[in-house]
Amino acid sequence: MSTIEVPMEQAASSEVASAPARGGRGADRAFRAILTMFGLTVLAVPLLMVLELVRSSQLSMEKFGLGFLTSTVWDPAREEFGALPFIYGTLVSSLIAILLAVPVSLGLAIFLSDLAPHRIRKPLGFLVELLAAIPSVVYGFWGVAVLVPWLRDTIQPFIIQYFGYLPLFEGPPLGFGMFAAGVILAIMIVPTITSVSREVMQAVPQLHREAAIGLGASAWDTIRYAVLPSARSGIIGAIILGLNRALGETMAVTMVIGNRPQVSASIFQPGYSMASVIANEFVEAPSDVYVSALSEIALLLFGVALLLNLFARWLVSSTKSKLEGRA
């Protein structure tokens, strides 16, 4: 039986060639491990935040129970705390913001995606998105210096004169209040709703528009019957993302909402939001129960924002996937 002898030079060269390959596999494994660690870190950070908030809220949960969500008392001196005024102020100001921002945002999105001349689409879209880059404290300063006096001297007296008999508009024109906070928030969430809605509308296949035009539809009919129905879920997701931004906004709201823990039917009255009370009172909270109550408010705000964000992202991504699949 014959054997094949491999020359010494050939064997040495094969060993040298295999060395980089082994080194490359080791580098790939290390690179994969590092990226996996980064991905797990992204998941671990919110989980650790939730665990810490739950731990910090334990004292408040044990002392107040579910009554914490329905009580209107916020008395640090007697260590009696209820979150209802802050939940109410957050929801009312955010609802006002959505009612004001959605028509403007959808109009801008329709204009930018279907009606605007091509030469101004990018500049106008950039200007709209630029609003999102303005710091919230700048919005708050503008609200205190410009918006609040304008509302107090012009808008609120006019509304009170004709609709003051309604509980929704009762009270003197203070300027500061939930209505001012809602207007500020509306300006701040317009870029979010506009950008996401425009992306969803642009994902609608061009064939849908051409088919509608071929049937004699006008520009408005094309948008109404061909574009908006297909993009409806994505637009709802964009609105929820805007609502999520409004719920968590802190500085601008703090500067104009009035920071009074009360539940009032009038939107012209001062209020308080969950984010604002945390920012204003957490550092100076003197007792463990006080800190625990603020932590429970933070946990509630975190949970609502997380659920809304996940739901909105799912709506937007599913809508874009369906539309791209039809293209």
From TrEMBL:
Membrane topology qualifier: Multi-pass membrane protein
InterPro entries the record matches: MetI-like (IPR000515), MetI-like_sf (IPR035906), Phosphate_PstC (IPR011864), Phosphate_Transport_Permease (IPR051124)
Transmembrane segments: 30-51, 86-112, 124-151, 171-193, 234-257, 297-316
One matching Pfam family: BPD_transp_1
One annotated Gene Ontology cellular component of this protein: plasma membrane
Keyword ATP-binding: no
Record region (Disordered): 1-23
Top-level taxonomic group: Bacteria
Domain ABC transmembrane type-1: 87-312
Keywords of the record: Cell membrane, Membrane, Phosphate transport, Transmembrane, Transmembrane helix, Transport
Single GO biological process annotation from the record: phosphate ion transport
GO molecular function: phosphate transmembrane transporter activity
Compartments reported by the entry: Cell membrane
Entry-linked NCBIfam families: phosphate_pstC (TIGR02138)
Family as reported in the entry's similarity comment: Belongs to the binding-protein-dependent transport system permease family. CysTW subfamily.
Function: Part of the binding-protein-dependent transport system for phosphate; probably responsible for the translocation of the substrate across the membrane.
Protein known as: Phosphate transport system permease protein
Organism the protein comes from: Sorangium cellulosum
